[in-house]
Amino acid sequence: MTTKHIGLFGLGCVGYGLYQLLQSTASRDLSIRRIVVSDRRKPRLVPSELLSFQPGDILENPDIDIVVEAIDDAEAAWQIVRTALLRGKPVITANKKMVAQHLGELIALQKQTGVPVLYEAAVCGAIPIVRTIDQYFSHEPIQQLSGIFNGTSNYILSKIFNDRLEYPLALRQAQQLGFAETDPTADVGGFDPKYKLIILALHAHGIVLSPADVFNSGIDRLTAADIRYARDKGWKIRLSPELIRTEEGVAAFVLPRFVHPSEALFGIENERNAVSVNTAFSGEQFFAGKGAGAFPTATAVLADLRAIAAGLGYSYERFKNPANILPDDRVLIDIYLRYKDFNQVKHLGFERISEGLIEGEFQYVTGTVTLSRLKKYAHILQNEGATIVGTGKVVISNGQPGTRIPKSHEKETCSTLSQN
Amino acid sequence: MTTKHIGLFGLGCVGYGLYQLLQSTASRDLSIRRIVVSDRRKPRLVPSELLSFQPGDILENPDIDIVVEAIDDAEAAWQIVRTALLRGKPVITANKKMVAQHLGELIALQKQTGVPVLYEAAVCGAIPIVRTIDQYFSHEPIQQLSGIFNGTSNYILSKIFNDRLEYPLALRQAQQLGFAETDPTADVGGFDPKYKLIILALHAHGIVLSPADVFNSGIDRLTAADIRYARDKGWKIRLSPELIRTEEGVAAFVLPRFVHPSEALFGIENERNAVSVNTAFSGEQFFAGKGAGAFPTATAVLADLRAIAAGLGYSYERFKNPANILPDDRVLIDIYLRYKDFNQVKHLGFERISEGLIEGEFQYVTGTVTLSRLKKYAHILQNEGATIVGTGKVVISNGQPGTRIPKSHEKETCSTLSQN
User: Fold this and answer.
1) Phi and psi dihedrals of B334, rounded to 5?
2) What's the rounded Cα separation, in Å, for the pair A40 and B40?
3) B140 contacts in A (CB within 8 Å)?
4) Please, which pLDDT band fits residue B408 given cuts at 50, 70 and 90?
5) What is the Cα–Cα distance from B352 to A280, expressed in whole angstroms?
6) pLDDT tens digits, B199-211
7) Contact A210, A261 (CB under 8 A)
8) Which of A27, A262, A295 sits opposite B282 (nearest CB)?
9) Do B281 and A264 touch (CB under 8 A)?
10) Closest to A289 (Cβ–Cβ): which among B139, B283, B298?
11) Which of A51-60, A190-199, B33-42, B407-416 has the lowest mean pLDDT?
């Protein structure tokens, strides 16, 4: 048994979690040889002989076999990953933003150097979803993929629905517990789950989506009135990234949506994550587990370390034959819009309105809008005090105005809701 | 790209499912070269040039790279697997009974020949649980593992609880739909989930359990009175294999148990399977998906074919350092016993009785019994008309009579129930 020497960048939650995990599992075949940190004044709970402030102590060190990148800054992380691969060192990273932003370059660099990058820890913590989609379901068409990819916003939603806290208080509590950053936008605004969705879209459909092109809306605009609307119907709200595939292509977006008690996501509370995968031959597969925290994330890093030690990388099987990306105006999403002014309803250009209510200050409609309209107007309307929540139904139109594709091609994320 | 040639034994549900799956996924790198079947009179929906009745046409054929074993008979399957490995051909099998009965020999043969056997399809169909425990959680202590491993009995329980069918009618319906065999004992008696539990115990704890030593009780003795008892409390019953680990060792058994609406297993209906894994560092991981059926099982076989083609086998990491097996008299299980005669209560030698009721014909007690007493008397009592259902709590005693290990070592499979 030869020992693999690890160079670790960053000693925050994930980095220190990995250090502890390697200590407690007595993994003698994997040893941290060097830890590069940036803050010189911070006290560190590791032997000081391991510490360094020079990236070169890892990147230019011939004794380091594998690089683990666990820092926050996406651009600095990318420079580390890039340099490590060019120096022939396999990399494990937990940085979802970096991976999502550099997906195409990451594949090209792996091909060029023949050196693998693994990033299981970047998507839903301890849930082994990247490798499962990349390897286990590598040849099975994936018709739909969704879930709860962000522990922070799910924690806040749990507090809102179970403990009846209002959004600002639930957010503050999440911040005090260390679940939410001082600037929580990446989590509550739906950016973090979008990065994860983009990573899964590569492995599920072979496509490289740009973060700027994928629509995301978060939970930060939900008001007491919206919560009451959901609660009165016995529903909850979950921040749900969606990846939908028909024969013609793929649609992707992140939007909060109502969930019904009969859905598996209804029971996923607090910082737990979940992934639901609908495949052509195996039907629905459901995975749930801790999506954040030092040990769950470090567990994923450790599993990747063992894969690298065994010489494994991702197959990127579907990248050889990527799917089309559907035009936004063919993606029809059923939403609830709480509005301040009827002009807001007009802006969204509803294809069809199902119901509406005006009750004093509380005014809403439900109906179908295109993803292109949502992209163009959702943030403007929400800045003006409106709220948009998906009702769980998404249909891909055949591109002819006023017509729909046959029923069998409809992808419903929540058939129960849509029938109500 | 070189094409791997497959020799397939058996063209039943799994074998024909694999044939169709390879056709529909246009997997040109994997090709079925030969199919050996036993029944000469049965019409077959594959090109007849593929068919043979001679095992040697696969086992002695130098053109066959990989053997897929998909026949029913466990002993015949074992002979095929054994011969194939000795001939240097990797094997994929879906036969849980064969794998569980020959676990020790399978490991020894793989070591001796250096040729891998994979059996993801033998455990919970399309759920990638064997490889996840073997590889992903290979170094993480697994404190508890349970779930729904048998689609047939879960289908019957769903019909009983949701459609209010009585057991015999629900069984007949499952048989008519092809979910249950004419002799349903393997499924409804808890043997099939026991084989799967034994396979997972090897990968989770490095231990080789003998089917004869692991206690199993099924759902075939449940009466209308037991169902009413569960339903009145808002519970359901699930057939639940349990693998519990403390610092001192492992306990394993299969017993139906009550489940509470707050538990994830409550929502797993019909032929779906689920696995719940509690790990020391990552917390609870939950997997659910189709556990039976041609395509879900064939999907698992196909994933194993790709793993073999990539040169992968199981790590059997924990087999290097196996756990102890706890003595049965240290495993304390909380049960519900519906009895006919108070002597039946005495036989089980309850350590503690929590509650009891006598209401005409319907008499029951709940309390704590040892696994050794259950092993000795459960089947005798159930043959006399009693029913035993777990209430969800299992405690490992420290071996001193009358004392319990500290609270922190208690493993509760269902803390909500046990507090009721």
Assistant:
1) -85, 125
2) 77
3) 25, 299, 302
4) very low
5) 51
6) 999 999 999 999 9
7) no
8) A295
9) no
10) B283
11) B407-416
CB contact set of A22 (below 8 Å; sequence gap of 6+): A30, A31, A32, A302
Please, where are the H alpha helices in A65-150? 74-86, 96-101, 103-113, 129-131
Residue-wise pLDDT tens digits, B361-390: 999 999 999 999 999 999 999 999 999 999
Cβ contacts of B99-103, under 8 Å, gap ≥ 24: B99/B195, B99/B199, B100/B194, B100/B195, B100/B196, B100/B198, B100/B199, B100/B211, B101/B74, B101/B195, B101/B211, B102/B78, B103/B198, B103/B199, B103/B202, B103/B208, B103/B209
Rg (CA), chain B: 22
Residues of A assigned a catalytic role: 196
Name every residue whose Cβ is closer than 8 Å to that of residue A294 and which is 6 or more positions away in sequence: A13, A14, A16, A17, A20
Contact B100, B211 (CB under 8 A): yes
Q: Looking at residue A2, what is its pLDDT?
A: 86
Q: What is the ipTM of this complex?
A: 0.88
Domain A4-118: give its CATH code: 3.40.50.720
User: B387-396 and B411-412: which strand pairing?
Assistant: antiparallel
Tell me how far apart the alpha carbons of residues A13 and A312 are, in angstroms, rounded to a whole number: 26
Q: Is B398 helix (H, G, I), strand (E, B) or coil?
A: coil
Cβ distance B295 to A288 less than 8 Å, yes or no, reads no
Active site residue B42: no
Strands B142-148 and B272-279: antiparallel
Q: Can you tell me the distance from the alpha carbon of A78 to that of A285, in angstroms, rounded to the nearest whole number?
A: 33
Residues B278 and B262: their CA atoms lie apart, in Å, by: 17
pLDDT of residue A400: 61
Interface test with B, best of A285, A312, A318 (most B CBs within 10 A): A285
DSSP letters, A255-304, are EEEEE-TTSGGGG--TTEEEEEEEETTTEEEEEEEE-SSHHHHHHHHHHH
Tell whether A362 is within 8 A of chain B (Cβ): no
A279 contact B CB<8A: yes
Of the candidates B125, B136, B267, the beta carbon closest to that of A303 is on: B136
Q: Per-domain residue ranges for chain B?
A: 4-118, 134-293+323-419
Instruction: Tell me the C-alpha distance between A166 and A164, whole Å.
Output: 7
Q: State in words which class domain B134-293+323-419 has.
A: alpha beta
Q: Does A27 touch chain B (CB under 8 A)?
A: yes
Domain A133-293+323-419, CATH homologous superfamily name and number? Dihydrodipicolinate Reductase; domain 2 (3.30.360.10)
Show residues of chain A in contact with B23, CB under 8 Å: none
Which residue out of B196, B236, B290, B393 is catalytically annotated? Answer: B196
H-run or E-run covering A205? helix A191-205
Phi/psi of residue A413, nearest 5 degrees? -80, -15
Interchain contact, B299 vs A126, CB within 8 Å: no
Give yes or no for A307 touching B (CB within 8 A).
Answer: yes
DSSP E strand boundaries for B260-306: 272-279, 283-290
